[in-house]
Amino acid sequence: MFAFQLLSALSSAALLVAATPAGRAHDHDTCSTAAAKMDLPANQTQLVSPTTDPLFVMLGVGVQNYTCILPEPLLHCSTISCLDTTPAFGVIQTLGFDFWKALPARVTADDLGAKIGPPLLLGFHYFVTSPSGTGLSPKWDFTSTGRFSRNSSAFVLGAKVGDITAPADPAVNIDWLALNNAEGSLASKIFRIDTVNGQPPHL
Asked: Which InterPro entries match (predicted)?
């Protein structure tokens, strides 16, 4: 699909949660997230379901960049909380990936995000220099779209605290992660789960 050999398409779900229960179910999204529960593998302690409902349940679609010379990876994060009581909720990552893969190569993640737009488009996921000044940190950034537009604190930088291989086809699907807040006020914890693709392509 892409001209660059070290870009890999990716679709994944993400849950952003707060340290304390949200005041109202609809404070942060268009639908309640109370029914959105993570289906985590048994016999592991790296990813542990939070005791509070998620603030956001999102589908991220975009590319992983495994080079240091190409533009940074960018995922567009769209809300899927309204699907959590429908059959589509369990397969939305695969549907999103298949749709993305079927698009013409000239269609970029930015093109797709522009078509989705707010309120479904919550924000963007990419990497920035870590607060320490060395290395990179993943950032979920809601500051430029939707209800959080122009809210400079509507972001979270994540610090990885849990990592498991994808339960299905880990050679193709990137790891599931748990991350704590390292900076920002959007959420206190992030889970990247239900990944589809994203591993480095074979050269």
From this structure: DUF3455 (IPR021851)
Tens digits of residue pLDDT in 1-48? 333 334 445 556 666 676 544 333 334 445 778 777 888 999 999 999
**Residue 147: HSE in the Cβ half-sphere, 13 Å Cα cutoff:** 9
Burial of 52 (0-12, 13-18, 19+ CB in 10 A): middle
pLDDT at position 47 is 93
pTM for the full model? 0.82
Strand partners, 59: 13, 78
The pairing of strands 75-79 and 54-65 is: antiparallel
Backbone angles phi, psi at 201, to 5 degrees: -65, 150
In contact, 61 and 107? CB cutoff 8 Å: no
Residue with tokens 């059959």: 87
Return mean pLDDT, the chain. 78
